[in-house]
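User: Can you fold this complex?
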Amino acid sequence: MTAAPPPVIILVQPQLGQNIGKAARAMLNFGLTEMRLVAPRDGWPNPDSGPAASGADIVLERAQVFSSVAEAIADCSQVFASTVRKRDVMTPVVGPVEMASAIHASPARSAILFGPERSGLATEDVVQASHIVTVPINPVFGSLNLAQAVILLAYEWSRSASLVQPTAFELEPRAPQAELDGLIGQLEGHLDAVGYFHPPERTQATRNTIRTILTKPGWSSRELKAMRGMLRAIAQPRVRSNTSNS
Amino acid sequence: MTAAPPPVIILVQPQLGQNIGKAARAMLNFGLTEMRLVAPRDGWPNPDSGPAASGADIVLERAQVFSSVAEAIADCSQVFASTVRKRDVMTPVVGPVEMASAIHASPARSAILFGPERSGLATEDVVQASHIVTVPINPVFGSLNLAQAVILLAYEWSRSASLVQPTAFELEPRAPQAELDGLIGQLEGHLDAVGYFHPPERTQATRNTIRTILTKPGWSSRELKAMRGMLRAIAQPRVRSNTSNS
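Assistant: Here's the predicted assembly.
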């Protein structure tokens, strides 16, 4: 058996305190206790949350607030973005069962991201995730609310908890998100230096592509370090040569 | 696959119209359309149901009303009583997965019974069922509401129904090996040009590391092309600057 930690549930810009409470209740039903809130619309704490939590107060009391998705997932090695809509990004899409298996197989911390009630996750949040997780719902009637999405994924995690097999391959664990961000930041810096990001209106799309491509591998800390070393080696001589020219 | 009919969802003495609407919404998310109501407290139809159904009106419009559980299940061959409490009855207890398998395995009609919001199913209703179905929840915090119990069992039924569907991974296919070799060759070329491969006795180990790191992602043709473009952008200005120096 693995000692995989339970996933962190991250609500991105939740609108109603009531829904935060319902999500907490849904979590605790299946043994999840760690909630993070990114920029909750009405601030935090929210007096509407408690009654809706129906006794899951401990989840609300321990909830941590962050101002950005990047900060909220910085210590997480695998991040699943819960969406129902098709997204025009290259992030791999998995179902709840595959998500649960991946969480149970990872000794590092995982997170599941949920977007605001009305709009769902923004693309710039989705591309920070290692995977998209989509509950396969009725194609002609997909209408899951926030707490329902949370409970279904929490249920699936809990259900799979007893089915976990030790993994055959001893993979190095995925590095924390902050280290991946280091690689992405470095690469973007190199690219920026050579004028890669033009025209400006395409810059964000290009950055999204870079992020999904580099998130997909699930590189370990050691692998990230090697990639950064190679990029530095390729990029630096140019800098030196420019310097000597000046 | 079997031609097993989807299960009928039977709400026994539901109290709030709102909860009937939410149950209808939960059902339709996973393709269940047949709802039966046994002696709804506030009569039927109930004006509070429609708004809570969020568009699942067809389920409400077709709902049939019965005055007793016995009448509501008369045409059903397998009946699952959803309860969370331990019951002092000899009815066999199954989990959601076993329930779903049994429903899919039966060519005859199945039903799932849910009790009133506050009290749950009465013992005299439970004993009419062929099985008790219990969602395994947190032993120290079991707090599923009606719609949540419905959605979890509907999800489990739907999940088992779709196990023959195409894979949950909607990844772009891995590029052919030759394309990956193209990226690796290009990167090694850039690195060689800046004297990265020294000392010579470490070269092979370094090349092996590069190959394992770049093989791991399983990048598609499109992703490989993007990576090659970025590496070229970073490496070329140096080449140009060298050329202009020579």
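The two ends of chain B are 71 Å apart (CA to CA). The mean pLDDT of chain B is 87.
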